[in-house]
Amino acid sequence: MGDDSEWMKLSVDQKCEHKLWKARLSGYEEALKIFQKIKDEKSPEWSKYLGLIKKFVTDSNAVVQLKGLEAALVYVENAHVAGKTTGEVVSGVVSKVFNQPKAKAKELGTEICLMYIEIEKGEAVQEELLKGLDSKNPKITVACIETLRKALSEFGSKIILLKPIIKVLPKLFESREKAIRDEAKLIAVEIYRWIRDALKAPLQNINSVQLKELEEEWLKLPTGAPKPTRFLRSQQELEAKLEQQQSAGGDAEGGGDDGDEVPQIDAYELLEAVEILSKLPKDFYDKIEAKKWQERKEALEAVEVLVKNPKLEAGDYSDLVKALKKVVGKDTNVMLVALAAKCLTGLAVGLRKKFGQYAGHVVPTILEKFKEKKPQVVQALQEAIDAIFLTTTLQSISEDILAVMDNKNPTIKQQTSLFIARSFRHCTSSTLPKSLLKPFCAALLKHINDSAPEVRDAAFEALGTALKVVGEKAVNPFLADVDKLKLDRIKECSEKVELVYGKKAGATADKRESKALPGKTVASGAAGDKDVKEAAAPKSGPLKKAPATKASGPPKKGKPAVSGAAGGSGSKNKKGPDVKEIVEPELSVEVCEEKASVVLPPTCLQLLDSSNWKERLACMEEFQKAVELMDRTEMPCQALVRMLAKKPGWKETNFQVMQMKLHIVALIAQKGNFSKTSAQVVLDGLVDKIGDVKCGNNAKEALTAIAEACLLPWTAEQVMSMAFSQKNPKNQSETLNWLSNAIKEFGFSGLNVKAFISNVKTALAATNPAVRTSAITLLGVMYLYVGPPLRMFFEDEKTALLSQIDAEFEKMQGQTPPAPTRGTSKNVGGGTDEGEDGDEPDEGGSDVVDLLPRVEISDKITLELISKIGDKNWKIRKEGLDEVSSIINEAKFIQPNIGELPTALKGRLNDSNKILVQQTLSILQQLAVAMGPNVKQHVKNLGIPIITVLGDSKNNVRAAALATVNAWAEQTGMKEWLEGEDLSEELKKENPFLRQELLGWLAEKLPALRSTPTDLILCVPHLYSCLEDRNGDVRKKAQDALPFFMMHLGYEKMAKATGKLKPTSKDQVLAMLEKAKANMPAKPAAPAKASSKPAGGAGPAKFQPVSAPVEDSMSSSVESKPDPKKTRGGGVSKAKSVQGKKMPSKSSLKEDDDKSGPIFIVVPNGKEQRMKDEKALKVLKWNFTTPRDEYIEQLKLQMSSCVARWLQDEMFHSDFQHHNKALAVMVDHLESEKEGVIGCLDLILKWLTLRFFDTNTSVLMKALEYLKLLFTLLSDEEYHLTENEASSFIPYLILKVGEPKDVIRKDVRAILNRMCLVYPASKMFPFLMEGTKSKNSKQRAECLEELGCLVESYGMNVCQPTPGKALKEMAIHIGDRDNTVRNAALNTIVTVYNVHGDQVFKLIGNLSEKDMSMLEERIKRSAKRPAAAPVKQVEERPQRTQNLNSNANMLRKGPAEDMSSRLNQARSLSGHSEATHTVPREFQLDLDEIENDNGTVRCEMPALVQHKLDDIFEPVLIPEPKIRAVSPHFDDMHSNTASTINFIISQVASGDINTSVQALTQIDEVLRQEDKSEAMSGHIDQFLIATFMQLRLIYNTHMADEKLDKDEIIKLYSCIIGNMISLFQMENLAREASTGVLKDLMHGLITLMLDSRIEDLEEGQQVFRSVNLLVVKVLEKSDQTNILSALLVLLQDSLLATAGSPKFSELVMKCLWRMVRLLPDTINSINLDRILLDIHIFMKVFPKEKLKQCKSEFPIRTLKTLLHTLCKLKGPKILDHLTMIDNKNESELEAHLCRMMKHSLDQMGSKSDKETEKGASRIDEKASKAKVNDFLAEIFKKIGSKENTKEGLAELYEYKKKYSDADIEPFLKNSSQFFQSYVERGLRVIEMEREGKGRIPSSTGISPQMEVSCVPTPTSTVSSVGNTNGEEVGPSVYLERLKILRQRCGLENTKDDRPALTLLSKPSVPAVVSSTDMLHSKLSQIRESREQHHHLDLDSNQMHSAATTSSSSSSTAANIDDLKKRLERIKSSRK
Question: What is the mean pLDDT of the chain?
Fold first, then answer.
């Protein structure tokens, strides 16, 4: 009992493992209870028992085991992790449960197995059960069979794989144990229930008694299709839904299931493949050549026995086929011919698709052999060719069949036609496209006129079958010339096809169709396959739809040219229905006259040949009227044109008559049913007149009309032959010109180019230059459609001529052929016809291919040549290959029949001499180009061996093989390569080179395919083994290819295929599959549906296939949008518009079509995913000294999903010119595809780094040009480079800074400059430091220069990791061997010295004596001393010259551009000036030394153009200079503080939340301490810009990032808002914020308040409350003018933004209402002029009518309230504040204010009138005398103060105007004479201004703007230029100039006048304008005024007296003198 108590205390899982059976029993019971209680299938509790379940089922104690089994069953049923235990548990059940005597145990074991199947582990279970069948214990075997039978019965044959079970059945039937045999019989019956007769073949060899018993059992089975009764977990929900549907709508779904179930198993698939090649008699090949026929017969009989095996193993059967072919073709004994044919039949049936590669060799021989008449031979040959047909496609053997059709032997013709008829029955409308049908119909039409009746009958049968398969509409165009009797016969045959096969076909058609389409042959088993042939496409609906739903897979075939001409061919094929009159007989002149007399007036006919030209002209006019009035059906065209041709006919001498005659011909052709017969009458005459100066145009018009009636191809051929049969060069050149235009108008379809080319060659050889020019122009037009192959016809021409042709082709390069505008008129309304025509995508393609005259070279491939190629001596082999190469070269284009050459070349592909292998590969490339698409019939016998060469150990051989495979694939498409097992066999080979190359190739090709053959699944097991290959490159390539396999096969199939892997491998592969599933690209869209809908949905479903091929090549972009050009005008024009583009040869075409779409595809989170992959080392890190292939391939793969395919081809082309093209395209799309560019930026930059390694300068220049534009765009878009992008680009860019070419270095420096706008300078620094370690001295020098510029622009904080380390590194270079590097290092250290002072010497550490002396010498020489403010403040930034329209733009560029400008300035100092200023010369500030008054500090000042200074008399106060001698301590502190703050502020806008929070915390510390907060002065705008950029970043990026913790965002928000609140509590700092910045800030805050995503967060409400508080602070504490102005602009923008939220505008208005409430307190500090200007602009944008149209009435009410409050507070004075508005009379604002004033005056009554109008006489009543005096004293105080002098004068003027009798004399008495004259003059100027006398531009230009820049801060010390008239212009020029100087040199000590960020309003621009623009406008106005007005000279005495009498308080004469002295000093220092 003690033991008992021990184990009872243990936990359940420990009990389960206890050695005592009782403990285990108890454990299992408890576990069972626990399992039943756990409700959550994913509960962690399940995982505890994961390792124990096997023990549950394999327990050694039978009683305990039973309980364990129960628990295990519940576990498997409910646990999510149960699947992991499948293998071990089922194995345990098989070995330890199925052998138990207890039935209960077996039952539970079976249930566990079935439960595993239910949880999707069927394959693993089946594998274990099949292993159990090999057990020596019969009980286990029986139980396993029983379990399999039960599983099959319940789950069905879709879940339980039958093939492995059927494989072991015969063995089970042979068992000695009766129980096993009985169970085998039961499972055989069950299998039969699911697959029916497919089971018979595999069981043919079992005991006959057993087979008989089985067959009896089978007969008893019900005939209905079985259905599964139990479903997988994933299917159970679906099944529940299906049951509901079925209960609602009968068995509708059931039928569908049957259709899927029945054809699932193909008997062939169930058979074991037999290897027969090794079993061939050893002397077979000798015997087959023996002279005695008996020996040959023996050999053949041996083969016949072997090929009777229904399934043969794949192998190299070429020798055997060759031997059999020889017997069939050449053996004289017909018995042997029949026997050999039977052997071929057996081979074809046994090998199926694998025999396809030999089909091309055998078919011609068999067809030729049909000349034998013996029935048994004919039958054997028929069976052979029918079996062979099923192994290949009609397309691939069509050439061979057509070649035999012209044979003279009637039997051959008959049998070939019958074979075609049988073949057609296997086709559908999609596998028999018109391009294939056309040549067959043409050949068969000859046969229906044959003299032999059997040939005619066979041809009728074939045509009838074709008619039945594809329908009348498709065939009719080819039967246009067939007479009615024959047509009826064809239709009769077509009906017979229906009658004979209708019933069978009807039943199987759909199913057969669905199988046949992908290219698998139907389950046929044995030879002949007669039943299957019946699938001859009935007329019923389903079949017509099949091709549509398949998106027309097969026709694609990889012919890019194919898709193009769909439309054009349509018009051509209209011949049948449209132009029935083609057969119009030729009428005699008498008949014509008779017919003409009916429709023409009698006088007309009489005067036709009158000798008087006027009568003839009158006759023509009547003729024309008659023709115009005739109806189409009544017009006798031939009669009319014959009348016109009557004497004098086309020899008419009078040009007017002739013109009219030609015009009538055109009319007849347009209006009548014009036939070719009629055309023949007139064409000769027209061609004769085409060169006539006066009649030529009419002749061309007539020709065009005829071309429209009789189609261009025919007309053009006739016209060309006529023109070149005469000698008139003018006619020839004009004919060529007409044809050029006609091709553009009609399109290129159907033209007989061969005929033209001979004529064009004649024209090119003409002596007349006009003819040659016209010919070259025509070639250019043809090139648009045909593409590069056209040039090959003219390669023999003279070099000069060829260069002209090339120049013409070059012009056409990149152009797309215009959509045809003519030739469609007669087809209107033929929507369905057109759709039908579109069904033949190959038509156009074959036209282009046809036009190349192909040479038959088979006669040159002699036996001697073949033996040479196979010779033992490599030199002779090489000779043979050289010969082949020259044969192909000479022929240029060849026919597909090349005799024995493929076999010979195949042997050379594994030649021991690698040079010969490479030569063979280049020949095969030649062959692909020369043979064109026909090369596809050689894919199996030559293409696959090329792939084998990819496994070669030599890199160059592999590269050549890859190029060859690509050349072939370009011609053939991918379908041929992927069909069959060949590719999977190659992948199976464990050759790492082969695997990686092949997988790389597939990864490149698969993404572009829209569908693939189902055989692709055969490659998957080998792909999985590659994923675990020992070779890393193979694994990498396999991983890359995985998503593309999944794209075509789907995740389910791929996951299912992992079933056969080992458990460990399986888990790994499944994990990779999951990852690939996430990255799986979308299949290229099959645009059939999308495009047919916009096309107006013309016609029924038939139309859909048209669009599939047409847009096929468009599908490279994942989301290709339907091109509007292609969809307009219904189906007709859709098909037509693309027709032209596709004509050129294979390669160039695919791309042309796609080029309309976007070039960069935005893949959501694509960039982020790539970065993660790189971080996780899943892909190679972009880090190399020279780019290796794997990097390029990786980039190519990454680009494939987000760059347009055609562009990618250009980007990775081997020719640099393609790179240039790609860059040009990227430049063009830069602006239009900003999002795409930014989404792919990392890839673009990586690609550009590859270009840096190119040796071609033009590519490099183009790349740098693109980079400049790119970084400008990025800075405009406020984009910040990620670390990944920077690190994979900047190091390679820095390499280029060491280029020997100056122009490149300059560009690279410019790019580095721009990069600082998108990437922090401090992070750029380490990259440049790395660059200084280069071996290239130029690179070292340039990097050092760049470092100096960075330090000068951004201060010491950019030095990384610390200034000390960085400087030590730099100082090393002072001792460099290279002089330029030494100088650069010295200059850089000097720059640092200028910034940092003597501290530099501490930082650079110990230098050698020599280096130190060089440095000291250089520092002495540099005439600089440490400046106190080295890091130029934002105020000092040199202004950009571009005009910025909106303040948003201006602000966005603020800090960044500032930095860029500083860099530019710094560069200009070091001799690399980048910035070009457009300012006039006299204002160009060349900095130089200027001496200050103290004489202790030197600073840079510009040289000035000399001006006379006599005009200066205006009072000027020299401000306190900002730079003064201060303590070194201050110097140091100032420098550090400013640059530190700049650096911290730059981090506020960081994309990294932590960085931003840290920076905000540091700023918060500064702001909270009063003594330190002053340091922020001058940085407020910069800080606010960084803040709202961060707000924007949070809103757009962080909030959208689901992975980001939202608490982090709340933390960041609280930091930002806290900082802002601290800032806006300090009024002095808050007032520094400028208008534009405030506008953006308010925009950001209001957007934040409206962000619904924050509401969902916990602390969201708290954030909103804080923002509310902050907004109130901003409104109260900011500069009131700036904030009011900002709100007005913001309101205007929000109302203009159509997409904006009304809520946003509402909040802006609420802010304005608050401002209105604050107005009574703040009115005096507001610059009203500026506010009124903003209101004026607002009203200009939103006139009252427009405002009233707004949905809300609030905007208009807000405006009215604001204006009303201002009027109320200012009274009539408000009208004096409209000074900044141009044309105020036209301003709606002034009118509005006047109305308001009038209204308020009316209300106030007479009291108000008296106050405003009576003037000074009422003053005494209103106010005391004292008040008046105070008022005047205040005014004079203002005049005396420099800042407010203008305002004071204006007020004084107003005062005098109102109180005309007021006495101001007492106030003037005490002042100096100068001051008195100044006041008087000022009043006079104002008077002139107000009254409009002598108004000058500067009065509105300078003053108000100057006022804006100074007001409202009272501390400003900037002198304000008053309103000036002409006489005062001079000084203002100098004041302006001085002001600029002071800003440049830091003399300005104002806080408000910061040109960088103080935004000035310009009256004419409704936005915030840059101060540069401001300055330019002022200067231009000054110049204008100087020209307009005369100067008033002041004599020097007056000036002198003014200078002596001035007082320090109010007069500035002394200061003027001082100013003069200073300017003199500047000049002298310049000298």
Answer: 74
656-693 tens-digit pLDDT:
888 888 888 888 888 888 888 888 888 888 888 888 88
Give the residue among 1303, 1403, 1305, 1320 at the shortest CA–CA distance from 1363: 1403
CA atoms of 1679 and 1702, how far apart (whole Å)? 27
C-alpha distances out from residue 1554 to 865, 1558, 1561, 1704, 1978, Å: 77, 6, 10, 30, 46
Summarize the chain as % helix, strand, coil (round to 5). 70, 0, 30
Q: CB of 1199 within 8 A of CB of 1244?
A: no
Give how far the C-alpha of residue 544 lies from the chain's centroid of Cα atoms, to the nearest Å. Answer: 35
DSSP type of residue 96: I
Contact between residue 943 and residue 976 where contact means Cβ atoms under 8 Å apart: yes
Three-state helix/strand/coil letters over 1516-1581: CCCCCCCCCCCCHHHHHHHHHHHHHHHHHHHHHCCCCHHHHHHHHHHHHHHHHCHHHHHHHCCCHH
Q: Which two tokens stand for residue 163?
A: 């093939």
Q: pLDDT band for 1801, please (50, 70, 90 cuts).
A: low
Backbone angle region of 1808, left / alpha / beta, with phi > 0 → left and psi within -120 to 50 → alpha: alpha
| Spatial distance between the Cα atoms of 806 and 1218, rounded to a whole number of angstroms | 17
Range name among 182-196, 951-965, 1713-1727, 1899-1913 with the lowest pLDDT average? 1899-1913
Helix (H) and strand (E) counts for the chain? 108, 4
Is the predicted pLDDT of residue 511 greater than 50, yes or no? no
Cβ(848)–Cβ(884) below 8 Å: no
- What pLDDT score was predicted for residue 1301? 85
CA distances to 579, 669, 708, 751, 752 from 674, rounded to whole Å, are 8, 5, 10, 20, 22
- Report the C-alpha gap between 919 and 458 in whole angstroms: 47
1298: left (phi over 0), alpha (psi -120 to 50) or beta: alpha
- List the structure tokens of 73: 């069953």
DSSP code for 649: G
Please check whether residue 455 is in contact with residue 405, taking contact to mean a CB–CB distance below 8 angstroms: no
| In the predicted structure, residue 1902 carries a pLDDT above the cut 60 | no
Q: Which residues, 6+ apart, have CB-to-CB distance to 1564 below 8 Å?
A: 1615, 1618, 1619, 1622
pLDDT reported for residue 963: 92
At 1489 the three-state DSSP class reads: strand
CB 1706 within 8 A of CB 1758: no
User: In this model, does residue 1724 exceed pLDDT 70?
Assistant: yes
Select from 1729, 1671, 2030, 2004 the least CA-distant residue to 1850: 1729
Burial class of residue 959 in the structure, from the number of CB atoms within 10 Å of its CB (0-12 exposed, 13-18 middle, 19+ buried): middle
One-character DSSP codes across 1362-1423: -HHHHHHHHHHGGG-SSHHHHHHHHHHHHHHHHHHTTHHHHHH----HHHHHHHHHHHHHS-
Distance of CA 1518 to the CA centre of its chain: 62
Picking from 335-339, 1163-1167, 1987-1991, which range would have the lowest pLDDT averaged per residue? 1987-1991
Phi-psi label, residue 814: left if phi above 0, alpha if psi -120 to 50, beta otherwise? left
Give the contacts of 1382 (CB within 8 A, at least 6 positions apart): 1373, 1374, 1375, 1376, 1414
Q: In sequence order, which residues have a C-beta less than 8 Å from that of residue 1050 and are 6 or more positions away? A: none
Question: What CA–CA distance (Å, rounded) separates 667 from 757?
Answer: 31
Torsion of CA 1734, 1740, 1746, 1751, to 10 degrees: -20
Q: Do residues 1996 and 1512 make contact, with C-beta atoms less than 8 angstroms apart? A: no
- How far is it, in rounded angstroms, from Cα 660 to Cα 699? 10
Q: Are strands 1498-1502 and 1960-1961 parallel, antiparallel or unpaired?
A: unpaired
3-state secondary structure 8-38: HCCCHHHHHCCCCHHHHHHHHHHHHHHHHHC
By mean pLDDT, which of 770-784, 918-932, 1097-1111 is the weakest?
1097-1111
